[in-house]
Design a protein that fits this description.
The chain is an alpha+beta fold. It contains eight helices and nine strands.
Amino acid sequence: MDARTAPDAAVVPAGRVAAPGRARGRATRRAGPDAAAAPGGARAAGPAAPGLAVTELIAVLAAVTDGEPRVLTIAGGQALPSGPLEPGHRSLQAGLRAWVERQTRHPLGYVEQLYTFADRDRALQDARHISISYLGLTREARPGGEPGVGWHSWYRFFPWEDQRTGGAAIVADVIAPHLLAWADAAPDPPARRERRQRVVITFGLEGGAWNEELVLQRYELLWEARLVAEAGVPAAPVPGTPMEHDHRRILATAIARLRAKIKYRPAVFELLPGAFTLLHLQRTVEALAGRLLHKQNFRRLVESQDLVEETGETVRETGGRPAKLFRFRRAVRAERAVAGTKLPLARAG
């Protein structure tokens, strides 16, 4: 479905970079030959000279609030903060920061490059359309900037990924029947077997394990089977709010990256206050992973990793006795880029 470079790969424009037209501080994109003007006032970009590459910068800003993973969006939840690389931007990240702060008024802290999307079917008329996406972890703040800016649970866009609540039922009752029917409709036996194997492995069917990191593969399989609106199906059978163009695919990439990251780096630092209870820490990890964890195993493994230390203070949690407050050890903060310091994902039992 797509051609992606490695996260740190350089982007080589086809000729030089051209910034498309825009309105109200938003990048303009084209989904296909019949695409209408984007919601929120964005105009379709004008014709581009052959050989030019349109470079768009896209931000996935994630937070966890009240046990829900949240993402900052524009256009009423239909798009991620984004805009074209312009001649006045001194670097890719400088351009990204300018667009995010202009559109949302949210300060942009540390971000890492996520992926570069350069599919031929993302072409903007005669120009090659290159999207460079970034992932940033932050704390939710009151949105500002343009109308339509807001925070939304990322499970609004991928409800099947929340295996803590109703995600498993969506897979069993809605997704699996449609995908298996799609597999059976393949033109020959080898293709049917190949499709069915992909469906079973990707969605953990027939007793298989659910792999929370396969977010992008699950979304792309639904797209291939034409079960999501972005595949050109107005009445898509699978629930989940669609986004403009391929922004939901980019969000799926970010969720997968973050779910993998919390297994080998304490990335959750950026999502928690300075002091927290172990229950708050567990609920944050569960929100990101989309599944419940075994309480005692989780606490035992956190303590064995020597990640946290007591602050000497307590807080009374709802319906219980006072809980100790913890903070991440300063040494862990200094070493957080070193692989091997992780938060455990032990399944609930």
